[in-house]
Design a protein that fits this description.
The protein is built from eight helices and 19 strands. The longest helix is centred in the last third of the chain and has 25 residues, at about 295-315. It is an alpha+beta fold.
Length: about 350
Amino acid sequence: MVEQRSSSAEKSHRSWLIDHGSFRDLQQLEVDVHGHEITSVRFSHHQNGIERPLRDGAAFVITQDALFTALRQRCRDVGVSVHEDTQATTPIIERGFLRGALCGDDMEIRAEYSVIADGANSTFGRTLGTYRRRDLPYLVAANGVWRSNLAATSTVNIALDLTRANGNSLAGYGWLLPDGDNSMTAGVVVPSTVRDVESINLRQVLDAMVSTHSSRWGFDPDAPLELGRERRLPVGGSVGPILGPTFVVAGDAGSTADPLTGIGVSGALLSGRLAGEVVSDAIDEGASAPLQKYSADLTSALGQRRRIGRVMLPILGHKVGRVALPLAAHSTAVADALLRSTFDTSLRG
């Protein structure tokens, strides 16, 4: 496995939300992880808010470093050689087939079959012919981390009062994740279907959101521990092709992030597991035919969410969305419907 990150790199304070489906994938992969359990979700819109309880084990928060460390360790446990701080730069193509990658100036890694998982920009994937469909929507997102004296809370906050720099309301949502220790990860997500999306400064949107909610959640908005860059996130199967004769494409590189929430870890774990299964079958059979199952398996698992996303994102980007979304902070019925349909979260019965 070639990984551009290094476990010895500077510590990241960022945390991720793991839902019940992702946790099931981690268990199936026998990855040993523990996190901060989330017991409720609160929808807020200005001074209004509704908090809804979740089923036991529905979600937990884990730090990025802890998750990556656990995944690396599991790889090593099953005999995988992990090349950290190494970037695959150039595909090795022989007779039209991908047979590995050049890494930097002096390393060549050969592989009969490959899984491409180099993120939303996927420069390696693009050299193999992947592209994003321009007729399908995407999301733009930005996030950061702040030290918080309320990080032990077990509630995730979904902010439905995003604003543009001029103070006008903006479709999309913000989120605040407590890590159970001393930090709060916060971010904003906006669909590409909103008017003038390319001109929106998401850092300003994030600043306004955290300033609005910082006092309630116990942190100083002017003292971030870490700020991520603004990202364009392909979602809902908008990137293809996701397989070739000797490779498959997984994670954000294959646009597996949820089209409604922008949560990428769920699709990354799922697609990674499915990719591993078809590659393992191909190795066992000595033929590439099992790779052809990958696209169908991924569609079977994510197809419904993708169809919902392609219908809902244009609506959310319209004025109707700016009016309808905040209703979740005013109505229990709307909050529950939003949790079940959009965030795919299990409510307590």
